[in-house]
Specification:
Two copies of one chain form a homodimer.
Chain A lengths: L4 H8 L3 H8 L7 H13 L6 H8 L5 E6 L5 H18 L4 E6 L5 H13 L4 E4 L5 H14 L3 E4 L10 E4 L2 H15 L4 E7 L5 H17 L3 E8 L4 H14 L5 E4 L4 H10 L7 E5 L3 H8 L5 E5 L1 H18 L7 E3 L2 E4 L5
Parallel strand pairs in A: 1-2, 1-3, 3-4, 4-5, 5-11, 6-7, 6-8, 8-9, 9-10
Antiparallel strand pairs in A: 10-12
Chain A binds a DNA duplex (16 and 16 nucleotides) through helix 2 and helix 4.
Amino acid sequence: MAVTLQQIAEAAGVSRGTVDRALKDRGRIRPELAAQIKQIAQDMGYQPSLAGRALAMAKRNLKIGVILQSAQTPFMKLVYKGMEASKQEVESLGGNVEIFPVDGVDAGKVIEIMEKLKEENYSGIALSPSEDTMLKKVINQFTEEYEIPIVTFNSDIEETKRLCFVGQDTKQSGRTAAGLMGEITGEEGEVAVISGHSSNPALNNRIRGFKTELEKRFPQMKIVGIQYSYDDEWVAAKIVEELLEQHPQLKGIYITGSAVKAVCEALVHLGKDQDIKVIANDFLDENKGWVEQGAVNFLIGQDAHMQGYEPVMLLFHLLFDGEKPDSEYRYAEIMIKNRYNL
Amino acid sequence: MAVTLQQIAEAAGVSRGTVDRALKDRGRIRPELAAQIKQIAQDMGYQPSLAGRALAMAKRNLKIGVILQSAQTPFMKLVYKGMEASKQEVESLGGNVEIFPVDGVDAGKVIEIMEKLKEENYSGIALSPSEDTMLKKVINQFTEEYEIPIVTFNSDIEETKRLCFVGQDTKQSGRTAAGLMGEITGEEGEVAVISGHSSNPALNNRIRGFKTELEKRFPQMKIVGIQYSYDDEWVAAKIVEELLEQHPQLKGIYITGSAVKAVCEALVHLGKDQDIKVIANDFLDENKGWVEQGAVNFLIGQDAHMQGYEPVMLLFHLLFDGEKPDSEYRYAEIMIKNRYNL
DNA sequence: CTGAAAGCGCTTACAG
DNA sequence: CTGAAAGCGCTTACAG
């Protein structure tokens, strides 16, 4: 049977309330007594009961808000599942989690929701930000002026006072792709990069990681093109065609973003899908299909579930236990999948 | 604010106890009333409070025992950490978890501990079994006669009534290695397998998965040897030497078990460590070192933490919520690591 | 500075 | 078949 506050109180010859004040440094207690009680608690191996704590705290009605941009994308739908898991866990412990999905990227909408959450006395907010000057300002206002902690996920937003970022180390993801590409092409030959929007910081980081690592570790390899599809299938297909025309020896393609389908279809059309090595990102069902039929050799992924689950749990632990995250960055593990471990 | 039993009781015009009996199918209630209450609960979106439940259940003093064989090995030390995490979680919810490490493989010792746990009224047991006829018998006796549920982890034990197995799909792990080996050797040439004890079922499954997949998918590749080191470094080194002597064209080595260090040192000694592609298992610090310096190209791993954490949580949910595991097998994800995502 | 008491949401004998 | 009450371990006003 675990040690309880009551038992410590008896051992110390004081009341439960006093033990609580001592252990939690709530003040209003003689320092010597506090020290003595702490010692007794430690000797008895006291571990506070989450259940008791949660029940007593339920009166406070702690509320956490989550704002999810680009909620309509397949990846964010996976993130959403992670949020729901954390929502259930927190609510079974007496807290409250509300999720606000936003279609597409809309900083104004995000700010609007944030203001509403403030009105309704939310204690913490998790959000997937977009690059926006006004949003940065509002985030800082919330954390500093209103003292509402903010956790960013999926994309980070620089130069803000957000408590923590949960997501992928995108540059490292690019490096991982480079390491794989080198291994599967025999460490020599021509490869190309196909990206999405040229303004997407995450994709650009992947490109940067890929490029620097490939140049550093595999000097015999050459990147013959870095092209942007702007998420347009026709453009992506065109890029592939021209690439293969100009570089018939092309050995591999690294797809940083969302053009997987168009690229694979173009390769199939040209009869090259089993020859050219393709490395792509994210474990979406569609991408998995391309791996299974051999058009994509490897998928590199971020754990989507964790990106939904962790931000809420970090806030919960902060608000509930006062426990701050160990680090400002909570990186998702970079996972490598082939057809055998999808 | 979440819906509580009390609120449902008021809505239904009955007492809390009655609602509880209806929702939990505890009997002693008019079926119509039960159905009606269930309907109301659903309409109100009732979610039971884990905190309230845990606190009320604390009186029962639910105890879970964990028996960990080969506890001295580096891998099992990682598993142990996972157990400690689950122990803390369960205990903060009013349960009790005791861990019993056993050095080496000793079925007699395991049985002895199991008997003790039975004496002390433990409600569930997690254990890492070894192949042993007597142990199988005892496991069945516990599950059937004593009705103490048992979860196996790390290794499974066939033909028993254990509730669930938590661990790696070893055959799939071998297949994953085959897929990687094919990709990084250009899908042709000679490769070898170096294993540990020839009697280890897990290692044999990896070999089987590797062999069948390689033959099926890469007909141009040839396995020129499957050798056993019996966990002896000298033997492992000797195997490598002879292998390279007889097969100077050897392109890759798949290490199923624990001879990583000896194999890598032998390769370094022969000046072949950067040429020969090596795929090994498990994310031990030592193995990571070999990846970093390039002697090992890929590590395939099982999530050790999860193998310690899940068995306890499965038992806890079973005993606490009556929630049975979805499947008899709870496989750890197969992870692929190179130097960039270690 | 210290204590006594109410209450969080649930389960469990116990009474009827 | 149904209800009233005690208690799980903690926090939080409130009294002194």
